[in-house]
Amino acid sequence: MPSFYVRRTYNVKSHPSIQRKVLFDLTFIAIAVVLFVLAASSGVGTVKREVPSVFLGLYIIYIGILFLLSYFLSDESYVLKVLMCFCEHFSHPRTRYMAFFYFGLSRLVGGCALLSGLGLLRLDP
Question: Which terminus of the chain has fewer Cβ atoms in its 10 Å neighbourhood, N or C?
Answer without folding.
Answer: C
